[in-house]
Amino acid sequence: MKIIFAGTPEFAAVALKSLHDAGHEIVLVLTQPDRPAGRGMQLQASAVKQFALAHNMPVAQPISLRLDGKYPEIAQDAHALLHATPHDVMVVAAYGLILPLSVLTIPPRGCLNIHGSLLPRWRGAAPIHRAIEAGDLETGITIMQMDQGLDTGAMLLIEKCPIAETDTTASLHDKLATLGGTMIVEALQKLEADALPATPQPDDGVTYAAKISKEEAALDFTLPAEVLARKIRAFNPFPAAFAPFGGVTLKIWSAQVVANDGAHPAGTIISADPHHDVIVACGEGALRLTELQKPGGKRLPAADFLRAFPMQGGKFD
């Protein structure tokens, strides 16, 4: 099939590669404009753009597709390009721009979205983070027919994926990206054969995965240890859980729930030695912090971290 693909991060690049490897013709790639990144804040192309250029795919990077938005002339040019590019279907994965109805109605076979949750649970921007944070035991991929709503379109294919107790957003992202790439190829095969029935989403079980803010990654040790452990996994790699200690802000990259006799106030360092990592009291239970990072430093196992940053007898602010 002739495909217009819209996506930006690595999650989308995996799907684009799957479509390319399956022999589909990618006639146009839409992706977000280059963004400053790294210490030098140099403009960097998205993962999707890098793959597209490496495989001689035409790329467009409009900052808006809304004709009634802030940049109507740019949106008009983008619409003209879409109309002028012969294609069968549009595939969308973590694009990052709203697709108005004026775009959704252009592709003859519609717009298919690769969404990283089992809809209608976790509609919205951060379904992988929120599933881990909430303690969900499973998630998955939904291939959805896009409509004007926020991830409200009819479901075309669904596959489940278990969430391991050790999964972070990084590890679960990679699993779901691979699954999504496989499923979109299957979905297009069925679409070509007119064998892709659409099922409306149920009204029950709707939840929203709000965009992640850096502020919510702050750890409050008055909360139960299990809640904090999920937050640490959910915010790894971004924005990274953190907590102030001794006048500096430490990033906490991994932790395990352990027992606590309740004799220590929340936030108190119960133990801090290379043999037992860093154990901190919580509102319920305790956390063993196993990987930490100080400002300007590297991510280190707790044993190595403690050699340069003693914490025994201290308390998180």
Automatic annotation (TrEMBL):
Annotated residues for binding of (6S)-5,6,7,8-tetrahydrofolate: 117-120
Record key words, sorted: Protein biosynthesis, Transferase
GO-annotated molecular function: methionyl-tRNA formyltransferase activity
GO annotations of cellular component type: cytosol
Group of enzyme by EC: transferase
Pfam families reported in the protein's UniProt record: Formyl_trans_C, Formyl_trans_N
Family annotation (SUPFAM superfamilies): FMT C-terminal domain-like, Formyltransferase
Catalysed conversion reaction: L-methionyl-tRNA(fMet) + (6R)-10-formyltetrahydrofolate = N-formyl-L-methionyl-tRNA(fMet) + (6S)-5,6,7,8-tetrahydrofolate + H(+)
Domain Formyl transferase N-terminal: 1-188
InterPro entries (UniProt xref): Fmt (IPR005794), Formyl_trans_C (IPR005793), Formyl_transf_N (IPR002376), Formyl_transf_N_sf (IPR036477), Formyl_transferase-like_C_sf (IPR011034), Met-tRNA-FMT_C (IPR044135), Met-tRNA-FMT_N (IPR041711)
UniProt xrefs under Gene3D superfamilies: 3.40.50.12230
The protein's Enzyme Commission number: 2.1.2.9
Location of the Formyl transferase C-terminal domain: 211-309
PANTHER family, alphabetized: METHIONYL-TRNA FORMYLTRANSFERASE (PTHR11138), METHIONYL-TRNA FORMYLTRANSFERASE, MITOCHONDRIAL (PTHR11138:SF5)
Function description: Attaches a formyl group to the free amino group of methionyl-tRNA(fMet). The formyl group appears to play a dual role in the initiator identity of N-formylmethionyl-tRNA by promoting its recognition by IF2 and preventing the misappropriation of this tRNA by the elongation apparatus.
Family: Belongs to the Fmt family.
NCBIfam families per UniProt: fmt (TIGR00460)
Name under which the protein is recorded: Methionyl-tRNA formyltransferase
Native organism: Glaciimonas soli
